[in-house]
Amino acid sequence: MSNPTLKSHHHTMKRLALILSVAIGIVGFTACSNQQLVRVKPYERGNLAKPIMADNMDPILKSMTEHAYFSREASFGGGGVGGGGCGCN
Amino acid sequence: MKSIFTTLVLICSTLAASAADPAAVGQTLPKLGQLLPGATLPNTARKVVLVDFWASWCAPCKASFPCFNRLQEKYAAKGLVIIGIGVDDEAAKYQAFSGKMGAKFPLVHDATHQAAKFFNPPSMPTSYLVDRKGVIRHVHTGFHGEKTEADYTREIEALLSEGS
Prior knowledge:
Number of domains of chain B: 1
CATH class of chain B: Alpha Beta
Mean pLDDT of chain A: 76
Oligomer: heterodimer
Largest interface: A-B, 23 and 35 residues
CATH topology of chain B: Glutaredoxin
Strand content of chain A: under 5%
Shape of chain B: globular
Largest sheet of chain B: 5 strands, mixed
Order of helices and strands of chain A: HH
Distance between the termini of chain B: 57 Å
Helix content of chain B: 40-55%
Structural class of chain B: alpha/beta
Radius of gyration of chain A: 26 Å
Number of helices of chain A: 2
Low-confidence stretches of chain A: none
Largest sheet of chain A: none
Radius of gyration of chain B: 18 Å
Number of strands of chain A: 0
Shape of chain A: elongated
Order of helices and strands of chain B: HHEHEHEHEEH
Strand content of chain B: 15-25%
Distance between the termini of chain A: 65 Å
Number of domains of chain A: 1
């Protein structure tokens, strides 16, 4: 390692590895944030729109759970979402 | 070093290319016969065309059918063509829904999603209003009852009054 040429080569390789990992990281994060890459398109949501996919299949169970949260937990609310799985409108 | 940058550029360009842009205002309507092979389509030459993407599982789509029937009755003779493209995966569901809705305009099944992939509708339903020159002039996402119908009426009347 005392060879200056070898040391310089080692240093270059380290820099290269760093640049490469940063670049791959940037590309990866960009890909994740790209909304277009969401695989299930609005026209493919037939299965998500089926009643079995609803979060409130059992209204009694849902109301009891909500009641439990309301009376026992400090965190109540925020249990609903806008729109169903079908992505309509 | 050069090869690393080339690889990165290739990765980025592949990612950009894989994201298909949705059909937008100003774009020319493609030949629907090529996107919907085997479907019986009406003549759209020098007509104002309304292409609507719907599905049997989509409640607003169901609500839009009476509106399209009214528009068809009112404007078909003046040069409006409405084409309803169903995107159901299951042919039986498409057939059952089509039979139930009593559409007075042609319905076609995009079984392979070829047309849907091209138009890439951002929501269900989405409709594209095309002028007599074949250019997409308006895009409607969703169906909001009387408001949407009033918008369609205004836009269709304006497009019909334009020369071919």
